């Protein structure tokens, strides 16, 4: 029946959404532990940023100066709660609203008291989405996360609108594993070994890559396809007759 199909669709969407939020939390914890950090030069070692976060007396950069410049006992307890809340949310079979709210509260404190670690764990990217995940599903949880993603994507593209970004793509492409050492590509993207300014093609490639980050969010904000209508139960013959003013048919 249409009602059963709608319930199944809602269940699949809820499960997919729960997995997506778990992925966000896992990424947030991984960056807080230090999985994307390491010695200079790309020689990544064992993640050790968690030791820095959980050590008393280590330096920090507070957004609010009166919170001090070294980690105290309160900071330590907040960082411990951050990891515990994230791990509890990942282990829970159901959607752990309390855990995600505690995680967001810890993020808010870390932003005010330990700004360097807030950025190290990409809190500036994850907090808006995780904050939206604190609300019930029928109160705009999905819409809030979508809005956060779209705004991050849009402003990332706007930040690339300028002559500076034309110098970015060519070095990244020429240093990749697949394209490194390709002289023909170097000649296409860079003017000469003594003049590392981008060619016209290199600048066009850079601006085309940046355009994806502000054109695509705008396309998502103004979709052409209309929103799906809610499925309503079809009226029974008795209801149709009552609405049209005709008497209901008598049974045989």
Provide a descriptive summary of the structure in words:
With 252 residues, this protein is mainly α. The chain folds into two domains: 132 residues, no CATH class; 47 residues, no CATH class. The chain has eleven helices and two strands. The chain has a two-stranded antiparallel sheet with strand order 1-2. α4 packs antiparallel against α6. The C terminus is likely disordered. Pfam families: DUF3556.
The gross shape turns out to be globular
Secondary structure: number of strands? 2
Distance between the termini: 28 Å
| Poorly predicted sequence stretches spanning 5 or more consecutive residues | 238-244, 248-252
Give the number of domains: 2
* Structural class by secondary-structure content: mainly alpha
Mean pLDDT equals: 83
Give the strand line-up of the largest sheet: 1-2
* Largest sheet properties: 2 strands, antiparallel
Q: Radius of gyration, Cα only, in angstroms?
A: 26 Å
Beta-strand content: under 5%
Order of helices and strands: HHHHHHHHHEEHH
Number of helices: 11
The residue fraction in helices comes out at: 55-70%
């Amino acid at each position: 029946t249409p009602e059963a199909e709608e319930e199944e669709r809602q269940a699949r969407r809820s499960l997919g959404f729960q997995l997506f939020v778990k992925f966000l939390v896992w990424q947030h914890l991984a960056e807080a532990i230090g999985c994307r950090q390491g010695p200079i030069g790309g020689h990544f070692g064992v993640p050790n940023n968690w030791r820095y976060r959980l050590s008393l007396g280590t330096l920090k950069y507070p957004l609010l100066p009166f919170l001090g410049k070294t980690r105290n006992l309160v900071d330590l307890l907040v960082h411990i709660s951050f990891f515990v809340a994230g791990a509890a949310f990942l282990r829970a079979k159901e959607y752990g609203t309390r855990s995600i709210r505690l995680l967001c509260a810890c993020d808010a404190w870390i932003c005010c008291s330990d700004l360097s670690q807030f950025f190290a764990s990409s809190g500036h990217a994850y907090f808006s989405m995780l904050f939206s995940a604190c609300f019930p599903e029928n109160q705009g949880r999905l819409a809030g996360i979508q809005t956060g993603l779209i705004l991050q994507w849009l402003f990332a593209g706007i930040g690339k609108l300028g002559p500076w970004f034309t110098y970015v793509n060519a070095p990244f492409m020429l240093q990749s594993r697949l394209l490194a050492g390709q002289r023909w590509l170097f000649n296409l993207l860079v003017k000469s070994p003594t003049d590392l300014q981008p060619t016209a093609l290199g600048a066009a490639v850079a601006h085309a890559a940046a355009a994806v980050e502000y054109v695509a969010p705008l396309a998502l904000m103004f979709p052409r396809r209309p929103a799906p209508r809610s499925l309503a139960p079809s009226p029974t013959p008795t209801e149709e007759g009552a609405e049209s003013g005709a008497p209901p048919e008598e049974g045989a």
